[in-house]
Amino acid sequence: MENLLWLVPALPFAGALILIITGTRLSRPLVSLIGVGSVGVSALLTLILGSQFLSAGPTEPVYQQVVWQWFSVEGFNPGIAFHLDALSMVFIFVITFVGFLIHLYSTAYMADDDGFARFFAYLNLFVGSMLVLVLADNLVLLYLGWEGVGLCSYLLIGFWYKEPANGYAARKAFIITRVGDTALAIGLFMLFQLFGTLHIQTIATEAPQTWAVGSQAATIIAFLLLGGAVGKSGQLPLQTWLPDAMAGPTPVSALIHAATMVTAGVYLITRMHVIFELAPTAMLTVAIIGAVTLLIAGCAALAQSDLKRVLAYSTISQIGYMFLALGVGAWSAGIFHFMIHAFFKALLFLSAGAIIISLHHEQNMFRMGGLRKLLPAVFWTFLIGSASLAALPLITAGFYSKDQILWYAMAGERGNTWLYLAGLLGAFITAIYTFRMVFITFYGAPKSHVTHPPGPIITVPLIILAVLSLLGGFIELPHNFGHVVLFSDFLTPLLPAIHANDALGTSEWIFQLVAAIISLSGVYLAYVFYLQKPALQANMEQSSLFRAVHRFWYSGWGFDKLYDTLFVRPYVFLARINKNDIIDKIYAALAAIAQVLNRSLAQTQSGILRWYMMGVVVGALLIITLSLLP
Amino acid sequence: METTATTHLPSDYLPILIQFAAALGFVIFAIVVTHLIGPKRHSKVKDAAWECGVESVGNARTPVSYKYFMTAILFVIFDVEVIFLYPWAVNFRGLGMEGFIQMIVFMTMLMLGFYYVIKKGILKWE
Amino acid sequence: MRLSDLYFLMPLLILVGAATLNMLVVAVKRNHKVIFGITIVAHLVAVFTLLQLNGSSYQIPPFFVMDGWGIFNLGLILLTSLFVTLLSYAYFEQREERKEEYYLLLILATLGACVLVISQHFMALFLGLEILSVALYSLIAYLRTRERSDEAGIKYLILAALSSAFLLFGMALVYAVTGTMSFPEIGVYLQSVSELPLLLLTGFGLMIVGIGFKLGIVPFHMWAPDVYEGAPAPVTAFIATVSKGGMMGLLIRFFSQADAYRYANLMLIFTIIAIASMLAGNLLALRQKNIKRLLAYSSIAHLGYILVAFLAGNRLGVEAVSFYLVAYFITSLGAFGVVALLSDTERDADQLEDYRGLFWRRPATAAVFTAMLLSLAGIPLTAGFVGKFYILASGVNTQQWLLVLMLVLNSVIGLYYYIKVIAAMFAQTKSVQERRKVLHPALSFASGGAMAILGLLLIWIGVYPTSLVQLIRGLLATFMTTF
């Protein structure tokens, strides 16, 4: 079976290829079949591979597959090889499985769109690229997948390209992530220069022997890799693209900008954890970035009125949690939260999509309301997703994954109180904005009409994801509470386990209790403000301070404006000065020289035989002269 | 003729210079002297360009029947064949059976070609 | 003469037999199909008998040697000639002229090239060269009613005769000094002297003239565009591939058997020639509007690239040359095949304008041509890229930085005019060009099939070059023992 590994990314690529070439000529059911089927078979293969993987026993199971060896000249032998270990297994499971559900959902969501085939072609291409990213056994291939998903993100954000704003959003996403990509590329160059290879396993084994902990090279490279991760994952300071990326169709937001692509940064850091562990400064930075991002994004989410933008900021904030986990060395907790987050955030986006399409592309929450009765199925799934996001204790998966992060932020070797407090405050804010969203959207008086009630193709993926959002957490329970460690055991041979501070060991239940109370009180606060006493809110809106803060948070802490004055304006100014492009002149001159040479050489091709003969004779003379040189 | 790389002096090239001078000198000498000492008697026939006995008046690019070239080329081919045959015949005994077979192969090929030539009517003049 | 000699010369004898048979059939009754069939079968049988000779080294003193290098080149030449034949059928079927003798001449030209690559003696060399050249004179001028055919034929005849004279003179000088015409014995002589006599160096220099002419490298390249333009498209393909490849095979054999790589002067000459060829070829092609001329210039440049690998003078270099020859042959056949495919009864499709918007009229043909042009430009995933990479590797391996630099620079220049053609093919044309009269579709089946195979081969070698590399390494094992 493991020989079929290559099929997992190959199938979506094949689907994309078929759809790109013949897409417009195929009927819609056929397009759906190819688009959904390719990812579906991939998901099936992944499940089979996964079950094999689990039954392989406690020895570190790794599947290596050289798919393609290009050539081998002088010790240079490029090719494509896949490396499947526990970490990639988690990722390909999420990508193919959640990806499949979202594909399925899209067949209904996009049913009336003109670009139906184009949509599935892009989506398949994305899934293929993302799989390449997480399966790559060397960093070049990883980078290829990295850029591939970036391209697909660009294409899909600007999917409705006739609206200029969507095109700008797509460009913004592309350019800002490019900043991070450049850092990543430089990091890769440095790695290659130092190790002579970009093979991940080789680097992982050689790095600890080459560098001491805290060595300068390791720190620089770790920071460069972090730059790439920050760009892709929408973390501070490169987070501004993600809210705008919501311009794409909602399934895209669910798949790319919530469940998979934006977590590529998490994957990268985890994959290169050996280097990060050699660079404690970088680790601390990861944790701080995570903590600050989760707070900032959480506050921004509080002020949004667009349903999808709330979810976008919440994604940034949740990835902040993952970064926090990675930064304190709780690798397995970070990946666990990634998986759970993929479930509930995909669920939330898809439910939001169902609402949006039912209300005829209405995204403003304040024009919704009362949908509890009108869209009961969507309401319940959305509620489950929200509960998981807000980490309601005991019943939701989100509680278990987030609790783990909070616990290690406090008790882990690299953790400290400040990180813990940031996480805790973030959890509070999360609960507020989540249920603010729920109450505004589903309760109160109905403000709009449901025109397209969702069909079964939309609700079935929602229900599956809802079940996972509830039950997914029970594979990893805290050790004072059930002590199920299936997930971390699965990752343990690969990722170093984290040890909790023994002094705090006995008091873990206190922290859990605090976290539970915090999230419940957040929900209560939201209830009071938005459902019970809307007057309170009205009162607050009177104060100018509140309005200023609201405006500030609404604009995402003014980062766009800041970057506009710091970078965009000076750049545009410079571009104006250099309108005629001085650098370009050099190339133009080269081209001109080539033209002149061409003209003068063309004179020799006169077509006159005796000149040709003279050419031969002169050539002979030159050669004889040269051969007689001493 | 063999000199080592280190001993090249300008004077070493003197023979070449002399050679050039001699060649040039001879050419000039020959041209000048023939003009000087040759007797000059003009007549209409003598002053006409010599063209292998063909009338040298009119367009030089008159078409010549390709049959002429064909016959000429065939003549050359069979001429060469005879050149091959003659030494073979002289050494017939020495070359023995192998030589005989080789010549048979050669002649067969030639005759096959000859068959082609006849079938294509190349030897028909009209 | 041993019987086993006949066994080892079987591919050549089959060609001789096929030529004779063709001649007889023509004498009895002209039939294009029958002649075409005989030619195809002869090529296939010759390839088959060649496959029986595993890469062992077999001497046929004093003229020939059948070793891995010879077998590699024979196979390449025979297969290339086979493809040229496949392309020729539809091309000549459209034309009024007598078609049958064409195949006869093609077989003879192939035979000449075959003799060339297995010769290890000046006599055999000259014999092969002349069989090839004489057949080519008439092949080039084959469509005699066309405007530029005669011109091309005459130009080639005169220049080839001139360069042959140089070659012959050079061989005579070498013979005068060494007293032998056999390559290995020349090698033995060269081993015995510490410094080369001037006469011998002059002889080598003069031989380079003859060799350089056939390879079409600067400064003996000027015939190439005129002849490429005037010759029928399949013949152009033949000149670009078999004729040049045969000479390249001979050159490498001569240099390795006589161990001439040791002489800095000869290396300097070839370095200058290589750089000049790359530059002149690419620069001349820049503004060329005639596809056949453009490809002629491009082939000048490509021979320059091959010389870079040749100059490495080691095992890797010969491997690179072999690989590049295969890639270049496939690509040239494909490119000229497209030209032949698009030609009509009056003229060859050699103007850039003929290709404008081709993609929208004949997508498959345009796709194949695009692949071929990309391969010529050395874009990854085509055979041309791997070949060029191989050459770069061999250049870097022997630290020939100047050559490597020129190679890279010229690849950039080359990209311009290849892309220009591709851009023309994908351009949307406003006015619908009048469709050329297409022959009976069954007629172009052979051409179409051949083009499809070439396209697939190109991509296959570009993606999985390993199998070809293994084949080349296996065959070179017997040849490269001297290194």
TrEMBL record, chain A:
The UniProt entry lists the main location of this chain as membrane
Does the keyword section mention RNA-binding?
A: no
Q: Where are its TM segments located? A: 6-23, 30-54, 80-104, 116-135, 141-161, 182-204, 210-231, 252-270, 282-303, 310-332, 338-357, 377-400, 420-445, 457-475, 509-530, 609-629
Q: What are its GO cellular component terms?
A: endomembrane system; membrane
List, alphabetically, the Gene3D superfamilies matched: 1.20.5.2700
Please name the GO terms of the biological process aspect recorded for this protein, alphabetically: ATP synthesis coupled electron transport; electron transport coupled proton transport
Task: Give the UniProt subcellular location, in the record's own words.
Answer: Endomembrane system; Membrane
What sequence ranges are listed for the domain NADH:quinone oxidoreductase/Mrp antiporter transmembrane? 136-430
Q: Which domain of life is it from?
A: Bacteria
Recite the UniProt keywords alphabetically: Membrane, Transmembrane, Transmembrane helix
Molecular function terms in GO for this entry? NADH dehydrogenase (ubiquinone) activity; NADH dehydrogenase activity
Official protein name in the record: NADH-quinone oxidoreductase subunit L
Q: How does it sit in the membrane?
A: Multi-pass membrane protein
From TrEMBL, chain B:
Annotated GO CC locations: NADH dehydrogenase complex; plasma membrane
Give the way it sits in the membrane.
Multi-pass membrane protein
Give the subcellular location. Cell membrane; Membrane
Keywords linked to the UniProt accession = Cell membrane, Membrane, NAD, Quinone, Translocase, Transmembrane, Transmembrane helix, Transport
Q: Name one GO molecular function term.
A: NADH dehydrogenase (ubiquinone) activity
Locate the transmembrane regions by residue number. Answer: 16-37, 68-88, 100-118
Leader sequence range is: none
Q: Which InterPro entries match?
A: NAD(P)H_OxRDtase_bac/plastid, NADH_UbQ/plastoQ_OxRdtase_su3, NDAH_ubi_oxred_su3_sf
Could you tell me what reaction this enzyme catalyses? a quinone + NADH + 5 H(+)(in) = a quinol + NAD(+) + 4 H(+)(out)
Enzyme Commission number: 7.1.1.-
Provide the top EC class: translocase
Spell out the subunit comment.
Answer: NDH-1 is composed of 14 different subunits. Subunits NuoA, H, J, K, L, M, N constitute the membrane sector of the complex.
Main function: NDH-1 shuttles electrons from NADH, via FMN and iron-sulfur (Fe-S) centers, to quinones in the respiratory chain. The immediate electron acceptor for the enzyme in this species is believed to be a menaquinone. Couples the redox reaction to proton translocation (for every two electrons transferred, four hydrogen ions are translocated across the cytoplasmic membrane), and thus conserves the redox energy in a proton gradient.
State the family it belongs to: Belongs to the complex I subunit 3 family.
Query: Protein name, please?
Result: NADH-quinone oxidoreductase subunit A
Q: Which organism is it from?
A: Adhaeribacter rhizoryzae
* Taxonomic lineage: Bacteria, Pseudomonadati, Bacteroidota, Cytophagia, Cytophagales
Automatic annotation (TrEMBL), chain C:
InterPro entries for this protein: NADH-Q_OxRdtase_suN/2, ND/Mrp_TM
Bilayer topology reads:
Multi-pass membrane protein
- GO cellular component annotations, sorted alphabetically? endomembrane system; plasma membrane
So what does this thing catalyse?
a quinone + NADH + 5 H(+)(in) = a quinol + NAD(+) + 4 H(+)(out)
Known EC number(s)?
7.1.1.-
Span of domain NADH:quinone oxidoreductase/Mrp antiporter transmembrane: 119-414
Which GO molecular function annotation, any one, does this entry have?
Answer: quinone binding
Q: The organism sits in which domain of life?
A: Bacteria
Enzyme class label: translocase
Which is one Pfam family of this protein?
Answer: Proton_antipo_M
> Quick one: where is this thing mainly located?
membrane
Tell me where it resides.
Answer: Cell membrane; Endomembrane system; Membrane
Please give the start and end residues of each transmembrane region. Answer: 6-27, 34-51, 71-90, 102-119, 125-144, 156-178, 198-223, 235-255, 261-285, 294-313, 325-343, 364-387, 399-419, 439-463
Keywords attached to this entry: Cell membrane, Membrane, NAD, Quinone, Translocase, Transmembrane, Transmembrane helix, Transport
Q: Does the keyword Glycosyltransferase apply?
A: no
- What biological processes does GO assign it? ATP synthesis coupled electron transport
Complex and partners = NDH-1 is composed of 14 different subunits. Subunits NuoA, H, J, K, L, M, N constitute the membrane sector of the complex.
Functionally, this protein is described as follows: NDH-1 shuttles electrons from NADH, via FMN and iron-sulfur (Fe-S) centers, to quinones in the respiratory chain. The immediate electron acceptor for the enzyme in this species is believed to be a menaquinone. Couples the redox reaction to proton translocation (for every two electrons transferred, four hydrogen ions are translocated across the cytoplasmic membrane), and thus conserves the redox energy in a proton gradient.
The record's annotation in PANTHER family points to:
NADH DEHYDROGENASE
Q: Per the similarity annotation, which family is this?
A: Belongs to the complex I subunit 2 family.
- State what protein this is by name: NADH-quinone oxidoreductase subunit N
Q: Which organism is it from?
A: Adhaeribacter rhizoryzae
